[in-house]
């Protein structure tokens, strides 16, 4: 069995978190199987029970019968060992773009988490090879399209099963090679699937769950970044910091919303509690930012719970209770909870894009930006006639936001009866997760643009002596300085696509440590 080290993520040892799974990619963390005796007993007993049942009764769904609507088809014993291979092959019909190597690795980790629950009847050889593939970066090439989210992610996971037996392509050392070639280079061997193992690998929610883990990680960061951007935009617009007062927010007890207001209050160095402010109210995109961002902040805990419960579940069918000697037929492959989580997250995240789009629209408009130059152009007075600042970038934000908002239509309500009406109600959880990641990409694009615009606005105020830079919060100053290190003040018109892409990359790699103690 894989030797364990303190730095390895153990499977079969206890409950895993989203951060655990993400660390396999983000921190290149190694994985290992637990040496716990109870874990070993569950794996061994399930395998032994299946062998015993096959020998004594000769009838097990998905082992000696066909699949799904074909469950009444009896498989001759002479063909039982070939059945799982056929399952991996006929589901090889996935289309669309391929998941990235990072996403493929998360999918492997997610499936390993489920199989390590010990209720799928899989062998040590299968579990160990999954561990080796993760640790040696032999990652299946998996098409994104073709799953209805029940029975699980059958078609995309067939590419995992096919890789294990040496029949599918993998990403290996920056190339796409057949898994047998990658295994040979690493001194590994493909496995021969035991009778239930094709079904065990494929009949589950690993793809949508892996994508949900990635979406959660990115949305959590997007929430904090949008909070920081709001503070910068408020400074650039010379906004009213009283909108984020802690007394004000104490009367509306949404904890996430309160935390967002507290973070902005901190960024703005807000300390006063006015008896009656004579300052005008800012537009909703600034004043109500905690109420928009707070919806996501308050949703994150229950979204985490749904995702992590799925991650730590046996989502196979049938469930094999080897210790109690039961074969339990059910629908744990149904991805309804992930579908709901992703459809909900889509709405929350797209609202961040909409909020940021409104903020940049305010900052570029001389009718609303409280004295900033048109389009935030830092061109000289002699040359401002022919320079356009953030004009086109703001138009781009409108386009990206519109596309994000369009995708918020819930996928989970588009169930289609399929597979001869055996799968007559399905989750569409993987489509929801893919939509969510696309919305995140679009939202990160809007956040990148709005961040650059807000920093530009603050720098213009400082250059015009309208803001005392020394009075700014040190964390705000540090972020302005860091952005300024790669983004020169936009004076003369120049292409900005490369700097936008660079900023998006910084967002996706979480360059800035935001509110780590709050």
TrEMBL record:
CDD domains linked to this entry: PAL-HAL (cd00332)
Source taxon at top rank: Bacteria
One Pfam family hit: Lyase_aromatic
Name of the protein in question: Aromatic amino acid ammonia-lyase
The organism of origin for this protein: Pseudoalteromonas issachenkonii
């Amino acid at each position: 069995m894989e030797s364990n080290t303190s730095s390895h993520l153990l499977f079969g040892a206890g409950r895993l978190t989203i951060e655990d799974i993400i660390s396999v990619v983000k921190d290149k963390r190694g994985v290992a199987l637990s040496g716990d005796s109870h874990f070993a007993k569950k794996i061994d007993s399930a395998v032994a029970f299946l062998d015993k049942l096959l020998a004594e009764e000769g009838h097990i769904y998905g082992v000696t019968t066909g699949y799904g609507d074909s469950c009444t088809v009896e498989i001759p014993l002479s063909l039982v060992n070939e059945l799982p291979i056929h399952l991996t092959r006929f589901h090889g019909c996935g289309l669309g773009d391929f998941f990235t190597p990072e996403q493929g690795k998360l999918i492997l980790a997610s499936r390993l988490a489920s199989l390590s629950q010990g209720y799928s009847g899989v062998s040590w050889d299968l579990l160990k090879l999954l561990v080796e593939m993760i640790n040696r970066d032999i990652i299946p090439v998996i098409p994104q399209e073709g799953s209805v989210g029940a029975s699980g992610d059958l078609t995309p996971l067939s590419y995992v099963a096919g890789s294990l037996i040496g029949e599918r392509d993998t990403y290996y050392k920056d190339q796409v090679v057949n898994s047998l070639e990658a295994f040979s280079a690493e001194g590994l061997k493909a496995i021969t699937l035991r009778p239930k193992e094709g079904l065990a690998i494929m009949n589950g929610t690993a793809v949508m769950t892996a994508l949900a883990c990635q979406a959660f990680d990115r949305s959590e960061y997007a929430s904090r970044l949008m909070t920081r951007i709001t503070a910068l935009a408020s400074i650039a617009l010379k906004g009213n910091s009283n909108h984020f007062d802690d007394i004000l927010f104490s009367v509306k007890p949404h904890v996430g919303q309160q935390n967002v207001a507290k973070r902005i209050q901190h960024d703005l160095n807000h300390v006063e509690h006015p008896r009656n402010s004579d300052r005008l109210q800012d537009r909703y995109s600034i004043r109500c930012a905690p109420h928009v961002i707070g919806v996501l902040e308050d949703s994150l805990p229950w979204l985490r719970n749904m995702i992590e419960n799925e991650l730590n579940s046996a989502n196979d069918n049938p469930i094999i209770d080897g210790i109690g000697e039961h074969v339990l037929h059910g629908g744990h492959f149904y991805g309804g909870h992930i579908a709901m989580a992703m459809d909900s997250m889509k709405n929350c995240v797209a609202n961040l894009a909409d909020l940021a789009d409104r903020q940049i629209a305010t900052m570029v408009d001389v009718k609303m930006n409280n004295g900033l130059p048109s389009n935030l152009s830092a061109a000289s007075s002699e040359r401002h006639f022919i320079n356009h600042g953030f004009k086109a970038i703001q138009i781009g934000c409108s386009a990206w936001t519109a596309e994000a908002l369009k995708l918020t239509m819930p996928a989970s309500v588009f169930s289609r009866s399929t597979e001869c009406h055996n799968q007559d109600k399905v989750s569409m959880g993987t489509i929801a997760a893919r939509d969510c990641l696309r919305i995140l990409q679009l939202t990160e694009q809007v956040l990148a643009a709005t961040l650059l615009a807000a920093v530009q606005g603050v720098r213009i105020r400082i250059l015009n002596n309208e803001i005392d830079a020394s009075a700014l919060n040190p964390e705000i100053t540090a972020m302005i300085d860091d952005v300024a290190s790669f983004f020169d003040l936009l004076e003369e018109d120049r292409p900005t696509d490369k700097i936008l892409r660079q900023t998006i990359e910084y967002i996706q790699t979480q360059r800035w440590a935001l509110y780590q103690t709050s």
